[in-house]
Amino acid sequence: MKVFVRVGALSVSLLLAGPVLAEGALSGRVVDALSGRALSGVEVTLEDTGARALTATDGRYRLDARESLARTLSLAASGYWPARFVDQRVEREATLRLLPRRIDEAALRACTADLGRCFGVPTHRPEAAAVPGLPQRLPVAVVLPNGLTAPPELPATVKVARRFASSCSGNPIVQIDEVAFEDYVAGVVPAEIGVFKSTPGGPESARASFETFAVLARTYALWWWLQSGGASAQYHLDDTACNQRYEDYRDAWITSVVDSTAGKVLVSAADPTVIDKYEYAASCGRHGTRPEYQTELVPDQTGTVGCTNGGWCGHDNCAAHEDNPSLPAGNRCLVRGTCQWGSLEWSFVGRDYGWILGHYEPNLTLVTLGGDPTANLVGFVRELDVYTGPDIADAAVSLDSGESTITDVTGFYRIVGLPLGTYQITASATGYQSGSREKVLDGPGDFWGSLALLPEGHDGGTDPTDGGGSDGGTSDAGGGGGDAPQGGCGCASQAPAPAGNLLLALALFGLALRRRR
After folding, report:
1. Distance CA 377, CA 343 (A)
2. Distance between CA atoms of residues 517 and 512, nearest Å
3. What are the pLDDT digits (tens) for 266-306?
4. What percent of the chain clears pLDDT 90, i.e. is strictly above it?
5. Cβ distance 174 to 163 under 8 Å?
6. CA 58, 63, 64 angle in degrees (round to 5)?
7. CA 172-176-179 angle, 5° bins
8. DSSP sequence for 201-262
9. Is 325:288 a contact under the CB 8 Å cutoff?
């Protein structure tokens, strides 16, 4: 349950628990945040109706909320910081904590020595600094009437530890909210990249970036859900950048974008029953990023500059995980995984989110949890021969079902989330004759649909078929925007997952998938 209190510039969220209430009533108890002592005489106001109540000697209050839409409470008491609590729910009782304006020195020392004594939960948990390497399993996959297997659904909820301030170092967890999984994603995306809405081209010009990070936020949260012990975990993530930022604020447009990607997560292309801690960071400064399961960097020269309306051009500088080895020490320019500002610029130049995910994570594939199986079409557009011909950049690739994209500098394209079936693929490029081929998608995963185009005026033939092999995606061919191996069958040419990476066996499918955010 999301309950959020502001104290000055600090944000604290509180767990709701207790008996089921009568319809339309907001009820609960107000206590001292440090001692847990019930507070009497606290004025509790329902902001949008003006209804008020004073807490009793046991700290309890009750308000009629039948006319309220926002259900936001404001609290005021002598000797305590005022606070607001949003998203109150009538079906549960709340425990609301107020922070004293003056803290007794002995109480402060007790909190420093044992934060759990003050706030009921520890500052950190043993797995808070987890790294890949501990396998977990999702529930058994769902068997569909057509005999195929589909991924299980996402967990219904995720538990979010709400810290007293915005940092995670020495910053106590005040309470834990249990939030619907997709609603959690809708709270992460605006907190992480909400500024991207304010760009000269308007929100729609950045849509692909928001779709990209909806998938990434969902995938990251699922990994932590598994890593932390599933439904029985005390909590799964915190709300700071030490995991991924989360806020109670929701933006209607961003939520609609998140909803459009519902259930989509990334898994290993070599073994789609594997999920890992796939990361992202703000900016690589266009110096390249390092995908999962490989050491070679992928370039991030987008050909444009992405700026907000306020003149912030974040990709011009570095704010990444570690030093890029090709630059002077201390540069902090190497992003592990996906570059946020880079994704914005790729969105500006017309790349869709499937392409962006494939660019930054060429060794991963996109699957949809909780729905019928979908497949992805990937491939190269090359001159004369799909295996050895020159790459054709900026070729238009379209399907008879209406989906379309363009190829990157290596001639690679990706179209994700397609219902199973038969598709006609058409490619066209300036200076070339158009070419088409048919491809059957008969199961989840990546299917190769490379095409060879004839130069204008050329009379010779081409071989647009995959020949039963990797369809042009050989290990030296590059693809997805860089040096990454493109093994169309996920076999020898696929970069192997290094030993020690977390192999969270998702049990997503009863059949092997072929390849991939």
Report:
1. 21
2. 21
3. 888 877 777 888 899 999 999 999 999 899 999 999 999 99
4. 44
5. yes
6. 155
7. 140
8. T-GGGGHHHHHHHHHHHHHHHHHHHHHTTGGGSS-SEESSTTS----S---HHHHHHHHHTT
9. no
Best CA proximity match to 215, nearest among 166, 265, 274, 161: 265
Distances (CA, A) of 235 to 128, 140, 177, 245: 10, 23, 9, 15
Kindly tell me if the per-residue pLDDT of 504 is higher than 90: no
pLDDT tens digits for range 298-342: 999 999 999 999 899 999 999 999 999 999 999 999 999 999 999
Q: What DSSP state is assigned to residue 137?
A: B
Say if CB 178 and CB 157 are below 8 A apart: yes
Q: What 8-state DSSP symbol labels residue 303? A: S
* Residues linked to residue 283 through DSSP beta bridges, in sequence order: 319
Structure tokens at 337: 């995984």
Rounded Cα–Cα distance for residues 310 and 308 (Å): 5
pLDDT reading at 29 higher than 90: yes
Look up the pTM and report it.
0.66
Looking at residues 360-387, what average pLDDT do you find? 88
C-alpha distances out from residue 304 to 299, 343, 348, 410, Å: 14, 11, 8, 18
DSSP 195: G
| Per-position DSSP letters for 389-440, written without gaps between them | SPB-TT-EEEETTS-EEE--TTSEEEEEEEESEEEEEEEE-TTB--EEEEEE
CA distances from 105 to 34, 37, 66, 86 (A): 12, 17, 43, 31
Determine the angle formed by the axes of helices 252-260 and 181-193, rounding to 10 degrees. 120
Q: What is the DSSP letter of 100?
A: B
Residue identified by tokens 């066996």 is 505
Q: Kindly tell me the number of DSSP H helices and DSSP E strands found in the chain.
A: 7, 30
Per-residue DSSP letters for 342-358? HHHHHHHTT--HHHHHH
Q: Does an H or E element contain 113, and which?
A: helix 105-113
- The answer to whether residues 399 and 391 touch, using CB atoms and an 8 Å cutoff, is no
